[in-house]
Design goal:
globular, binds iron/sulfur cluster, about 10% strand, about 180 residues, Arc Repressor Mutant, subunit A
Length: about 180
């Protein structure tokens, strides 16, 4: 029975997410913004990732801003907003229960960890497909990614064909709202 410990673990972790004067939605938003690429760090993308209403996300963003954990910046001429973690936000995230759990996972044996990761990814993919949800995957598994598309470009050697922009190695490890799995 694998689902039971998974459910119990999620509940235990959810209880810990109330520590430190934050709530689970605020913590989830911080984790998302720390992992999102530059095309995905907007309130709209955050709303779609969390599957929450615009009103709830707006309150979450305002609370995080008030606490000095995130900052808003103008994104482009269309006046959309970009959300980034402040130094205080990054410090808070370093003590996040899920980040601490990641450290515990690293301490598991290599074979156990690899199998667990593969199994959980497969389960997640199944649920995302069943629910018709966006994958929020990374560049390396995206149909728009070209490994050597911008070789010699100072902005980065890889290419996103959708945004027609260069990507760095760091970019390719971030999650993206426009990710579409390569077939
Ligand atoms: S290659 Fe795909 S995942 Fe990467 S930035 Fe482009 S659309 Fe997003």
């Amino acid at each position: 029975m694998v689902a039971w410990p998974l459910e119990r673990l999620a509940r235990v972790m959810r209880a810990r997410e109330h520590e430190g004067g934050l709530n689970p939605a605020q913590r989830e938003a911080l984790r998302y913004l720390a992992r999102a690429n530059r095309f995905s760090n907007t309130p709209g993308a955050l709303t779609r990732y969390l599957g929450a209403t615009k009103g709830t996300i707006s309150q979450t963003v305002m609370a995080l801003e008030r606490k000095g954990l995130i900052a808003k910046a103008a994104r482009d001429a269309r006046k959309s907003v970009r959300l980034t973690l402040t130094d205080k936000g990054r410090e808070t995230l370093a003590r996040d229960p899920w980040i601490e759990l990641e450290t515990a996972v690293e301490e598991l044996g290599g074979k156990t960890r690899r199998r667990m990761q593969r199994g959980l990814e497969e389960l997640l993919e199944r649920e995302v497909t069943l629910g018709g949800l966006q994958s929020f995957g990374m560049c390396s598994s995206c149909r728009f990614f070209r490994e050597r598309g911008r070789e010699g470009d100072a902005k980065g050697p890889h290419l996103c064909m959708l945004f027609e922009d260069a990507l760095t190695d760091e970019d390719r490890g971030r999650i993206c709202i426009e990710h579409v799995a390569a077939v």
